[in-house]
Amino acid sequence: MANNDRLLVQILLLALLGAGLWVMAPFISALLWGAILAFASWPLMRLLTRWLGGRETLAAAVLTTLWILIVALPLVWLGFNLADHIRDATAFIRDVQVDGLPEAPAWLGSIPLVGERLLTWWNSLDQQGAALLASAKPYFGQVGNWLLARSAQIGGGVLELSLSLVFVFFFYRDGPRLAAFVLRLLQRLIGERAEYYLELVAGTVQRVVNGVIGTAAAQGLLAMIGFLIAGVPGAIVLGLVTFMLSLIPMGPPLAWLPATAWLVWQGHYGMAVFLGIWGTFVISGVDNVLKPYLISRGGNLPLVIVLLGVFGGLIAFGFIGLFIGPTLLAVAYSLLLDWSRSTQPSVQP
């Protein structure tokens, strides 16, 4: 009878756990982002707590406010600017439908080798613009639906970011108690190896964070150097923009490609070619070398495990998979190593 009661309790606990996970499912991603951000900046939290005389709640509030100022507000500003550019593009298409293309810029015909051909193409496109727009009109709806879907994704991302910044406050305030709770759970599940696996997960996440932020800092610095050499105005600001865009996959080209186009528009073709090469092979190329090195540095994981975790995580889970993928593979690799060492067959005499 006691065994039946114990089984019933276990079933009820599993059902309760499943219901809790079902309720929390919409917030899992925001919780993970909040946990990752809190863990990556935990040394700053400890330092601020000491400065404020041990008042953890005040330190958590100050640091959360700092993250809002550094992360959330620039992204909101970027969103408003993106909306302005979309509105300008819509107005340009409407003007082209009514008045046709504007006069070709003077520098277009002076481009070596292809200038005359581009000028002829521009004039022919202006003459045939109405017909081309009429033939392309059925596709405008599809493009509009695609833009609407992307806008919904951006809005969902901003909401998720806002939730993660709310959650990070509680991770800051209750971090030590949460860590002790997780450790007790792991000790109940896997025994004496619990602390080792907790340190493994923490170290892997820390190296991934260092790799992402370190690579973004390197790309921002290299971009600023390239902008200064090419003579692009606002090179320091563009370097900071590149740093922020480097935190998302395929983000840096959104900074140096418009700068390259601006150089072409101004007629600085040599510097435009330089910045295009610099952006392709130096700014964007450093991501493929520096990030895996920084993530694998200081750990005992093979580099191929790190690479599979980074790129496989990105494909499977999106940007947050950059942290989940290496962590999952690191834990699985260590579990397999422990299991293989503990089940080695004894040698018979």
Automatic annotation (TrEMBL):
Q: Name one Pfam family in it.
A: AI-2E_transport
**Keyword Ligase attributed:** no
Q: Which InterPro entries match?
A: AI-2E-like
Does the record bear Cell membrane in its keywords? yes
- Residue ranges spanning the membrane: these are 60-80, 154-172, 221-248, 268-290, 302-335
Keywords of the record: Cell membrane, Membrane, Transmembrane, Transmembrane helix, Transport
Domain of life of the organism encoding this protein? Bacteria
Q: Where in the cell is it found?
A: Cell membrane
| Membrane topology according to the record | Multi-pass membrane protein
Protein family: Belongs to the autoinducer-2 exporter (AI-2E) (TC 2.A.86) family.
Name this protein carries in UniProt? AI-2E family transporter
Origin species, per record, is Pseudomonas shirazensis
